[in-house]
Design brief:
The chain is an alpha+beta fold and 574 residues long. The chain has two domains: 396 residues, Ammonium transporter AmtB like domains (Ammonium transporter fold); 133 residues, 2-Layer Sandwich (Alpha-Beta Plaits). It has 18 helices and seven strands. A five-stranded mixed sheet has the order 1-7-2-6-3, with helices on one face. The protein has a two-stranded antiparallel ribbon with strand order 4-5. A hairpin with a 2-residue loop joins strand 4 and strand 5. Helix 6 packs antiparallel against helix 11 and helix 6 packs parallel to helix 12.
Length: 574
């Protein structure tokens, strides 16, 4: 007899876990460069679109089609009898879609770690195989009645079964693939390659946090009975607590370590805390969840630094650390902190050792199978995009997409060429200590080649580079001396100060480009010297970085509407 409450609960969980695909897509797109945004979004879409029919054709049967120790059974199109594994009161179709979205989650984790240099066709083949075989087999061990389940291994919602599987696959894939061009210099030191849209990444994190209440909470697959209601409420609380504490911990940790709280690392910490609590969200207390959050908040940034600086494995979004490391750690901590049976609660070492065995076994299974899969793909269709395609972006080469942000200007990003292996060391900009106006706002006169002028009146172009905060003051000052025509451009750049030394995900950013405003003015009636002096007065604060002024000779100006040239073309209507 079916239960409406239980069925609705399972379907709600399936819908929330499906929506996690949007969260992963936003995170991965935001933490990578704009030229690869369309490619990232397509890969996240294909994980679910390929995984759904493949899991129906093969994966579900391998996972739930029997009680064998290693695999369930071979049941294409899931035509067998699954009544023995169905939750109480839940119809088969609801359980099928619930398990399908979990499979897609495991597959989509890998796209972030292998971002910006993986061929699209190769990624699609990987996605098919992990959904068909790799995830279902280890999933059977844990959730399908396999040998780990028989030993008492516990993973409530998938720290190991889902996230660690994706994290280990990410590790193997990123290692075989190699780092992005320009990620490491000749000495092997990592360079920061910034993501292009932190707002999108933040949205992805909040979507994932929201959906995780369904990921963990709805894994009770029931809302019948007082005990189940209490358990669901407890899961919501422990899930939220671990994520929040992990964020605070990483914020403080990076604040102490890098002198400023790292934004992207703190976002990662939220996900790391969620991944870590997923195994034991139904077995630990609120205090235990807080401890798991603290551990995740410390381990996460250390793991990101280890893979980046020591192992030299390029993971643009931190997927290996978030899902692999925190997934394994959370599963092990369940063996220590479980209120019923945990080592710290007097339950003995048996449960903890079982958790250790499960983690090691799943790591071995995924590492071996994914090593074979990625190497076969590498030697057949190829795994990595060509260097030219990587430098120009996968969007244009893989999908014919010039940009994922049509009609929006994009900030330039650092593209390192293979031969460019040394950057000047940044120097801290002076925030205090006044310098002379000539030092603060230097003027450089550039003479164009001599030519035929359209009039006897000298035409000059004045280009002013200044901070965004000073633009309105500069504009008002120019209007005050009769200069009303100007062209304004948002630019990025740095002068002799080489930008400020900052850190991105624990890696120092060299040659940090700062946002500036470029104002171009062509003058004839107003003396150039007056324009320069007025601009310097408006921009001057006494600190290095006030701006620069460039003066150019202009041969001619043509007003398109009237055909007027030279001095006349610059004058307004009488």
């Amino acid at each position: 007899m079916y239960s409406s409450v239980n069925t609705i609960w399972v379907l709600l969980g399936a819908a929330l876990v499906f929506f996690m695909q949007a969260g992963f897509a936003m995170c991965e797109a935001g933490f990578t460069r704009a030229k690869n945004t369309g490619n990232i979004l397509m890969k996240n879409l294909m994980d679910f679109s390929i995984g759904t029919p493949v899991f129906w054709l093969l994966g579900f049967g391998l996972m739930f089609g029997g009680t064998g120790a290693l695999i369930g059974g071979f049941d294409p199109f899931v035509l067998g009898d699954y009544s023995a594994v169905l939750p109480d009161g839940v119809p088969f179709a609801a359980f099928l879609i619930f398990q399908t979205v979990f499979c897609a989650t495991a597959a989509t984790i890998v796209s972030g770690a292998m971002a910006e240099r993986t061929k699209f066709i190769s990624y699609c083949i990987y996605s098919l195989l992990i959904s068909a075989v790799v995830y279902p087999v280890s999933g059977h061990w844990i959730w399908g009645g396999g040998w780990l389940a028989q030993l008492g291994f516990h993973d409530c919602a998938g720290s190991t079964a889902v996230h660690m599987v994706g994290g280990v696959a990410s590790l193997i894939g990123a290692k075989i693939l190699g780092p992005r061009i320009g990620k490491y210099d000749r000495e092997g030191k990592p360079r920061a390659i910034l993501g292009h849209n932190l707002s999108i990444a933040a949205l992805g994190v909040f979507i994932l946090w929201f959906c995780w209440f369904g990921f963990n909470g709805c894994s009770t697959v029931s809302m019948t009975g007082d005990d189940t209601l209490v358990a669901a409420g407890s899961i919501f609380v422990t899930t939220n607590m671990a994520a929040a504490v992990a964020c605070v911990t990483t914020m403080l940790f990076t604040w102490i370590r890098f002198k400023k709280p790292d934004v992207s690392m703190t976002f990662n910490a939220a996900l790391g805390g969620l991944v870590a609590i997923t195994a034991g969200c139904d077995m630990v207390s609120i205090g235990g969840a807080a401890i798991i959050g603290i551990c995740a908040g410390i381990v996460l940034p250390l793991a990101v630094e280890f893979f980046d600086k020591v192992a030299k494995i390029d993971d643009p979004v931190g997927a290996i650390s978030v899902h692999g490391v925190c997934g394994a750690m959370g599963t092990l901590l369940t063996g220590l902190l479980a209120v019923d049976g945990g080592l710290f609660y007097g339950g003995g070492a048996s449960f903890f050792l079982t958790q250790c065995l499960g983690v090691v076994s799943v790591i071995a299974w995924v590492a071996v199978t994914m090593f074979i899969i990625f190497n076969v793909i590498k030697r057949t269709v190829g795994l990595r995009a060509a260097a030219a395609e990587e430098l120009e972006g996968l969007d244009i080469h893989e999908h014919g997409l010039p940009t994922a942000y049509a009609d929006f200007s994009q900030a330039t990003s650092m593209t390192a060429v293979a031969k460019d292996n040394a950057y000047p060391q940044p120097v801290e900009a002076k925030a205090s200590g006044k310098v002379s106006p000539d030092q603060a706002v230097p003027v450089q006169v550039v003479s164009a080649p001599s030519g035929i002028s359209a009039s006897d009146v000298k035409l000059s172009k004045v280009t002013i580079i200044c901070s965004q905060a000073k633009f309105e003051e500069l504009k008002s000052a120019m209007n005050g001396i009769g200069v009303t025509g100007m062209t304004v451009t948002q630019v990025l750049g740095c002068g002799i100060q080489k930008g400020r030394m900052e850190y991105y995900r624990g890696v120092p950013m060299t040659m940090n480009l700062l946002p500036k405003v470029q104002v171009d003015i062509v003058v004839s009636k107003v003396p150039v010297s007056q324009v320069i002096q007025t601009a310097k007065k408006a921009l001057y604060t006494g600190s290095i970085g006030d701006g620069k002024i460039f003066v150019y000779d202009v041969e001619n100006v043509v007003k398109v509407r009237t055909g007027e040239e030279g001095y006349d073309a610059l004058q307004g209507e009488e």
